[in-house]
Amino acid sequence: MNELSLHNLLKPRRADTHKGDYGKLLLVCGSMEMPGAAALSAKAALRSGVGLCTIFCERALMPALSPAVPEAIFLYPDGPQTLEEAVARSSAVLVGCGLGKSDEAAQRLFTVLDKAQCPVVVDADGINLVCGRIDCIKPTGSVILTPHIGEMSRLTGLAAGTIKAQRKRVAQQFATGHQVTVVLKDHITVVAAPDGRLFVNDSLGNPGMAKAGSGDTLSGILSALCAGGLPPFEAAAAAVQLHAMAGDRAAARLSQTAMLPADMSDCLCEVFAELGL
Length: 277
Hints:
The protein contains twelve helices and nine strands. By secondary structure, the chain is α/β, with parallel strands linked by helices. It has a nine-stranded mixed β-sheet, sandwiched between helices. The protein has helices at residues 6-9, 35-47, 62-68, 83-88, 103-115, 125-130, 149-156, 160-165, 167-178, 214-227, 232-254, 261-274, and strands spanning 24-28, 52-56, 73-75, 92-95, 120-122, 143-145, 181-184, 189-192, 198-201. Strand 5 (120-122), helix 6 (125-130) and strand 6 (143-145) form a beta-alpha-beta unit.
């Protein structure tokens, strides 16, 4: 059996456990312009089994986010607990989804990258803020970047067509060169590890997933698996498969045209049930 198959990567929950055993995830996501990105990521993370999900965001976002993810905990920049303290308590951090590209957003990103001793998933605005400053990522192997083709072009300076034509080589060289895990998203998604290992998803998923918010959902799944203890490369390979399988179920139920990223989170229930998890 493929060592990166979901049956090998994901294990049933044990009877004698509590929420702390399934990870403490911190989301540094969302902004006044894009609160939904934080909601989508948090919902996907919770659907993927994380024990505790904390959102670090502006206090003004709470009325919109709390009804969408009532299971989440909220921390605010103007509160008594600092971002550094929140990072120190976490078993994984997701940063960037809907964060914006302001100076304050950049400061939060670089604080996470500097202080985290756990896996860090950098997505969306986080990737755009890293462009040109890739040296801010410590070569520990614990950072995961999730660029689509356009973001990978900005990271590498390569044309999008070149990346599409040589996606495995580009992802692998970037991952080994910077000692990060790369999830290069496209209709064929490539996961590359710092040690050169590759995982390619070229069979699961569908065009209905090509909607804003799909990447936020994937990042939520991925960060939950990291928080739960899977190593970055294995967590990325599992997350890509779960995301695509949920997307296929959403398309079958709702059509590729009408399905939404939020539907994929709901369809994770069916995927985990079928896996016996």
